Amino acid sequence: MSNSTRCAACRYLRRCCEDCMLAPYFPSINPERFACVHRIFGASNAARMLQQIPVEQRRQAADAIALEAYWRVQDPVYGSVGVISMLQREISVAQRELAETQAQVSMYTAQVQSQSNQITQVQYLVDNAHLIPNQPPIHGLCQPPDIP
Amino acid sequence: MGGNSPCASCKLLRRRCTKDCIFAPYFPSDDPHKFAIVHKIFGASNVSKMLQELPVHQRADAVGSLVYEATARLRDPVYGCVGAISYLQNQVSQLQMQLAVAQTEILCIQMQQEPPLAEQKMEADDKSFVINNNLTAMPQLLNYASSSNVAQDPLKREFLWT
């Protein structure tokens, strides 16, 4: 296999392997991807893990292994566990914010409903004012004379 | 550990466990399974290199996370930890969506409660009264309707006008 057609794994390991099983998943255009995998898992471990997986799922598995290796290189202590912790914190914060916001929505809705009820009551009184019997004269106000 | 009882890693690797064995503090002999899974996924030499590159006070946490990742990968050989991360990312997205909806609801309620000053002014017969007493409120209403907050947030705009 010529230099230009070797996969990233074979180029990194300086070998010539025509039937390299890592070739489909570690193309030569992205050498850093394999470098991370090799550093964290090792080429033989990675190849063995992929071999134990059905062919149709190997691409996803290779991507997942590459991601885990990348996160471990970025964070040598916690790796992808650090990402999980960060997401769990985000979820906790978002849940709290959502609960507070939904409580505000309930409060505003109750206020609007209360105002709407008051307006309805006032409108009812206005509409039915003609049904209210005459009130006794209020002291001090000028009243028209009684018509015999 | 030391000359008496080899650590789990040295037992598995069948080698002499020296007093400065890097694995001994983290892989005691009473839990052989822990080192076995880490060795299966990462390899003993890779784990040794990783631990050597870390300060001593961080090695216990590193071993803990390696054991977690190795366990996850044994349970799910295709996605490993990435499966859990993908699930959590979906949860975060859903919560953010729900939060945006709730915040838009508040916005709608607040807008409904705004007194419709423009309409009242147009219905008034005495326009001079309107001009003299309510002119300062009009710019506020117009500015609110065309505020950058509403215009630039596509998610809020979408929910506002559906």
Account of the 3D structure:
The complex is a heterodimer of chains A (148) and B (162). Helices cover 61% and strands 0% of the residues of chain A. Chain A has two domains: 1-74, no CATH class; 81-139, no CATH class. Chain A has helices at residues 8-13, 31-40, 43-51, 58-74, 80-127. Chain A has 148 residues and is mainly α. Chain A is rod-shaped. The mean pLDDT of chain A is 84. Chain A is built from five helices and no strands. Chain B is mostly helical. Chain B is 70% helix and 0% strand. The longest helix of chain B has 33 residues, at 81-113. Chain B is elongated. Chain B starts with 7 loop residues before the first helix and ends with a helix. The model of chain B is unreliable at 134-162 (pLDDT under 50). The A-B interface holds A 39-42, 44-45, 49, 52-53, 57, 60-61, 63-65, 67-68, 72, 76-84, 87-88, 90-91, 94-95, 97-98, 101-102, 104-105, 108-109, 111-112 and B 41-43, 45-46, 50, 53-54, 58, 61-62, 64-66, 68-69, 73, 77-85, 88-89, 91-92, 95-96, 98-99, 102-103, 105-106, 109-110, 112-113. Chain A: Residues 84-111 form a coiled coil. Chain A: InterPro entries: LOB (IPR004883). Chain A: This is LOB domain-containing protein. Chain A: Keywords: Coiled coil. Chain A: Residues 6-102 form the LOB domain. Chain B: This is LOB domain-containing protein.
